[in-house]
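Hey L., structure's done. Input below.
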Amino acid sequence: MAVIPDDVDPFRDVALPELDAVRSGEELDWPSIADYLRRTLPPEIDTRGTFHVLQFPNGSANLTYMIAFGTNELVFRRPPFGVLAPGAHDMGREYKVLSTLWRQFELAPRAYVFCDDHDVAGADFFVMERCRGEVVRGVIPASMRQHPNVGKRIGFALVDAMARFHRLNPSASDLDDLGRAEGFVLRQLRGWKKRWDLVADERYGEQVTDIFDELLATMPDPQRVSLVHNDLKLDNCMFDPADPDRVVAIFDWDMTTLGDPLIDLGTLLNYWPDPDDDSSVVGLAHT
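Output:
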């Protein structure tokens, strides 16, 4: 079961603020965006207030901003600037998932608007509801430190949420066309190897080939097909600060597909450190 190891200091003060000013170079045409959203957001969202923007500084992939009309706060997501890998940072896919999944799975934020007109924001983007809670990134937030066994409890809560997600019927959420489930794991393995070959470091080539061959030889037959988040990890979850046994939201759905649910379990375990991992091994798993 996923728990924070005893030798990882969960209280070390390394967290960035949840919101900050927009980073230099990541400004967008906010007047154009505000005008577009006033015309396209559902009528129940009041857009008459003054428009303002802050940025979520955490994360290392898509650009995520808090936008607000007066006191009505929303979340704006678009790909990073620069050349993107084919199929990466798929805002259309994330919108497709979140515009319907919230009806069946309350931990999925509701998406309201998708735009593929690059004259508005320079790239595809979508807007979704803003959720409230705490995201754990290398430090237990002050609002949760009073709870006993908080690391263990958020670990169990995350795994419980993952299991609930995997029990969903993709057809019930109109997501049964999200991907080709047949051969999913094999395609993942071959894709990883292909991407490695493009950037291969000869110092590790033999090791990577051995790992690939071992994974290929021991690949289990899929037990069933489910929705797969494909990037499920601690800092893609938000917790109730008053109740660390409860996940309130899961984020970053742009790689969601159909496949073997064990892929999500494997991803989670890959990010989570073991007690005997040193800092060079743990990496992102410090979450």
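The chain has a mean pLDDT of 89. The longest helix spans residues 150-166.

-- N.
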